Amino acid sequence: MPSTLNLLALDFGASNGRGILGAFDGERVTLSELHRFENPYISLRGKLYWNIMHLYSNAVACFEAAARQGIQPNAFGIDTWGVDYGLLDKNGELISQVHSYRNMSDEDMLPVWETVSRRELFDHTGIAHLCFNTIYQLHRRKREGDASLEYAKTLLFLPDLLAYCLTGEIGTEYTFATTSMLYNPIIRDWDYELIDKLGLPRIFTDIQIAGSLRGKLTGELAKSAGLDPVPFAAVGEHDTASAVAAIPGKGNFAFCSSGTWSLFGVETDTPALNDSVFQANFSNEGTVQGGFRPLRNIMGLWIIQECRREWLRQGQSLSWDDIVRAASGAPALVSIIDPDRPEFFAAGDMINKVRRYCANTGQKVPESVGEVARCVYESLALKYRMALKDLEEIKGEPLTALQIVGGGIQNKLLNQMAADSTKRPVITGPIEGAAMGNVLMQAVALGELSGIEDVRLVVKRSCDIEEFTPNPSQAWDDAYAKLLTLMGEKT
């Protein structure tokens, strides 16, 4: 290999995106940010959309930023949030705007279940029933008579759609396909029996395993940016898959990819499709090594992100550090919410939603910034405890630690709360988990690393890891019992 590989990760999230350069010397990788941008959803006539041209133009800006620094990337990869997609016509043109998964509600699942039962869906796909899954999005468009489906010849998930815009090549990466509830983990292909039964079009492409090459940046774009054509690597295109690939731990641990969502799970070689997994509403999403991640989607930092948007609109200039400091000074374990309630999924009016939940459940209503934030953070830590307990039942053995990666690990208060709530040591790092996994899976695609063990060894050499020791207490046990009561669960 060259003395240093320059690997460009396009790490695009549901609130912002970045171009991250990974300089890999064969032993360690160093990440540096080339470009950053905001990625707001667009509201139009009561529906939410992603601005695909905004994402594309900022992807191009990442290459231009590399060129300005005299850097020729050896490869690039793309990771995004799951489930969302675009539709192409017979000429390869994008037919309509890209719909946001936040258009969906629990009511959108009911018409699907009239044709295919909840259990049959799970048995076919191993995916938890979440209203935003691609299968529910497509079925809603069919019910609404959306003409885009009639003209569609190809469905490309968001990272593959961006890759198509940049390279002209089509394909679907495995980890992303598994998020859709259209992939069958037993036959390891699209579940056309299910697709046909629901009357959905057969518009899916071949599935490619993570760590594979697929085309290059087009000559036109490369020339415009001042670069030679850059190979595209299909990495773990679902950002959680890339983040989990960058977990440096070994042994019997649970992972949490902490960001807008908290994705909480374990790794397995085969899908977990038994009754306990179905009842616990866990998903079997894919790993970069071709296995599975039995995991639960927990609402994550979305709730506090929405609260902060409101505080900013109200004229309170609050940084994330300001919010954490305020939460640190608020009384502990006074009020809690169930973060996964449907009302917290939808955007807007989030502070009042938190307050109404507390009022309606007979709890003290949080008023100040610190009280609201502490309520949200402690509630997340308690949901982590519930997910950990369910995972131990699924695996049939205790999990000795919780490994947390992603931007959420910058909140050390929440990390300590997670340790205290779960009674497990919490190990955090790397912060840029998705970008780190993205970059190193490019190295796999180029043949410079042999697989996941090599990837994790490089992560361990390259990152600062921090451990939080649990301080369990009766107060946390009482709060957990309270959460179970609020959710109607047995204590």
State the name of the first-level CATH class of the largest domain: Alpha Beta
- How big is the Rg? 22 Å
What are the low-pLDDT stretches, counting only 5+ consecutive residues below 50?
none
| CATH T-level topology of the largest domain | Nucleotidyltransferase, domain 5
Spatial separation of the terminal alpha carbons: 57 Å
Strands, total number:
22
Number of helices: 20
Average pLDDT over all residues: 95
**Number of structural domains:** 2
The CATH superfamily of the largest domain is known as ATPase, nucleotide binding domain
Q: From the 3D coordinates, which CATH architecture of the largest domain would you assign?
A: 2-Layer Sandwich
Fraction of residues in helices? Answer: 25-40%
3D structure, described in words:
The protein folds into two domains: about 5-240, 2-Layer Sandwich (Nucleotidyltransferase, domain 5), CATH 3.30.420; about 245-430 and about 450-490, ATPase, nucleotide binding domain (Nucleotidyltransferase, domain 5), CATH 3.30.420.40. Helix content is about 40%, strand content about 20%. It has 20 helices and 22 strands. The chain has a seven-stranded mixed sheet, sandwiched between helices. A four-stranded mixed sheet has the order 3-2-1-6, with helices on both faces. Strands 4-5-8 form a three-stranded antiparallel sheet, with no helix packed on it. The protein starts with a strand and ends in a 5-residue tail after the last helix.
